[in-house]
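Holo prediction — C2G.
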Amino acid sequence: MKTVLTYGTFDLVHIGHIRILKRARELGDRLIVGLSTDEFNRVKHKSSFMSYEHRKEILEALRYVDKVIPESTWEQKVEDVLRNEVDIFVMGDDWAGEFDFLKEHCEVVYLPRTQDISSSGLKGQLRQG
Ligand code: C2G
């Protein structure tokens, strides 16, 4: 059983999110997502349109996601990797290099982001009508 772990806010889930979740899941047998809480979003200087509960319910409905855990701090990743016996940690390559410290505990993979789409971009387009 190969376990994959990734993190994010996943607000207004779009094809960029779906594609990274799909590719991450395909690297193993189960995918765990560390979902940023509303409070942690503020730490990340991000605000999400949808609440943590709604974003969690949406992710749990996706075929690629097996488990959602809360992401409340930057520092919890090593503990999450060990507690969940994670084999592969995955993030989009906008984070390339940022989580290499996890390499002593699991494989670290940065996957190409999907171009030309983002939650903030979608919000801007919706505002412009
Ligand atoms: N992503 C992508 N393509 C996009 C947009 C996002 O591949 N067009 C990926 C990101 O690279 C990330 C994941 O989707 O791996 C989630 O993106 P966000 O919800 O924006 O998460 P982020 O704010 O990057 O939070 O501790 C890690 C942080 O919680 C990551």
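READOUT: Residues 7-10, 16-17, 20, 36, 44, 46, 71, 91-92, 94, 113-114, 117-118 surround C2G (CB under 6 Å).
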